[in-house]
Amino acid sequence: MTMTRNRLQIIMKNLKLLLIASIIIISCKPNKIELRDAKCTPEKVKPGESVLFSVNVNDPKGQVETITTRLVQYPDLVLMLNDNGGQGDVVEGDGIWSIVFEMPSQASPRQYDWEFRAYDDADKRISAPEGEELRMQASFEFFSK
In sequence order, what E strands does 4-144 have? Predict the structure, then answer.
């Protein structure tokens, strides 16, 4: 009986250690926010046509408050994407953030590059786990009628 009690105590101690190790591993798991599949649709746009900007956001802890896209050639032009089922976003809460934008008729024919970025609720730019800036780029070609 003593031998059985000792074995039971050893098993319980090992289970306790395993539980503690599991908690440590889970709590140390990196918070991996990712931006994937940034798109401008369609890829060729005429003056006055609309462009759908979209990016898939992997945000396991819900830290992303805002996604923006800005025109690289004209950095003052910044659009806020959404995941609320409106303004070009198809499904609310699906992790695909998007916005529809109408290209001005006076825009010059050329390729335009757009940069997507993520921000938290304090309006602070979110970085990748490696400390690099978390961003993606997509482009479309704008041509005259």
Answer: 34-41, 44-45, 50-58, 66-71, 74-81, 96-102, 110-119, 135-142
Span 80-103, pLDDT tens digits: 999 999 888 989 999 999 999 988
Q: Specify the length of the chain in residues.
A: 145
User: pTM score, two decimals?
Assistant: 0.71
Q: Tell me the domain boundaries of the chain.
A: 1-30, 34-142
Could you count the other beta carbons within 10 Å of the beta carbon of residue 99? 19
User: What is the homologous superfamily of the domain 34-142 according to CATH?
Assistant: Macroglobulin (MG2) domain (2.60.40.1930)
Please give the backbone phi and psi of residue 6, each rounded to the nearest 5 degrees, phi first. Answer: -65, -45
**What is the structure's pLDDT at 47?**
82
The encoded tokens of residue 10 equal: 């050893």
Instruction: Please tell me whether the peptide bond between 42 and the residue prior to it is cis, using omega within 30 degrees of 0.
Output: yes
